[in-house]
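Recap for those who missed Tuesday's class. We walked through two folding examples back to back. For each one, the amino acid string is listed first and its predicted structure tokens come directly after. Nothing is annotated here on purpose, so try labeling regions yourself before you check the end of the notes.
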Amino acid sequence: MTSASLTGEGRTNPYTMPARPAHKERYSMSISSPKTRVTLVIVVSLLAVGVAYAAITLELWVGTSNHIGLWNGPAKLTARTLKTPIGETTGRWHYHPGYVYNVVRQGTITIEDGCGSIQSYSVGQAFETSEGRVHRAYNLGDVDEVESNMFVGPPGRPITVFIPGNERRCGPPSTVDECKGDGWASFNFPNPFANQGQCTEYVNHRARVMLLVPEDPLP
């Protein structure tokens, strides 16, 4: 098992979100020469909508196994502690190739699904971002958000895959019910469907893992 200090999911492409108040930072720089001394005072206004933030990986542990039941074979497990700073509203659209389980330890994180649903999670809440579903995350709270993540995925694949061009994508569908009515027409990831039947067939043929429910006989 190894550990590494890496940057987390880079979230640098701006998009329109509620702007935070502008603030100013003042920098003083002195330039000296034999004949002259010039003091330059630079005042820079930083608007939140134009600032590039990024989630920060505080801790990362990676291990491999010849067999993990959840993956039904060889798998890579990644334990990560991630901090999403206040004002991080530039989350990039992405998905995770494996299973991901998350616990919020501080603050509140907002997860936006590519199909439109938005859900916020606060301290003590857990959530899953699995099944390859496209989503993005941001922090609209008043404190930095910190969460613990556990990734269970295929060896040789990254824990996060970003959508090219940071395009918003909807999908893939997880249940047949999502295909009913006009639901099938909303999906465009990994590919759009021509009709409800195609959507239903896709869901029914997605790979599945059968697991035994752990026994817990003692009170």
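Example two. Treat it independently of the first, because the proteins are unrelated.
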Amino acid sequence: MGLARLICAAVLPARPLLACAAAAGGILIAGCGGHVEVSKSDAALHHGAILFNERCSGCHTLDAANARGSKPEGQAAPGERTDGPNFNVRKENRDDVLFAIQNGGFSGSIMPANVVVGRDAEDVALFVERYAGKKAPAQGKTGGGG
């Protein structure tokens, strides 16, 4: 019986410490998510931005969705296969974005087809159409999807 009390006494004080560590870890993880710049007042655009952040930010960059997946600006060396277009500097139209979503991009690269579908795909396409290309050079041309 004495040994059981000794073991329990040693374990019990650690529980509050573990709970605090778990809470601190949760706060750190929540703080890494970043801020989507699209107002909730337009539900479809905001939903598209959230989905873009969740499903596309691993390979694409678009500030309005807090997405940083493309090769860093100014990097001359070849990037990773997963470095998709930087939509801050590349303007897109809704139909091209929908085509890219449904078909896995235009170049036959690594982009998965149907990463979002249905209404979700339409919301992402609308979001990209409205927010892509805001940092494009004036002489920039409209490109095909990713």
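Answers for example two:
The chain is about 45% helix and 5% strand.
Confidence is low (pLDDT under 50) at residues 3-32.
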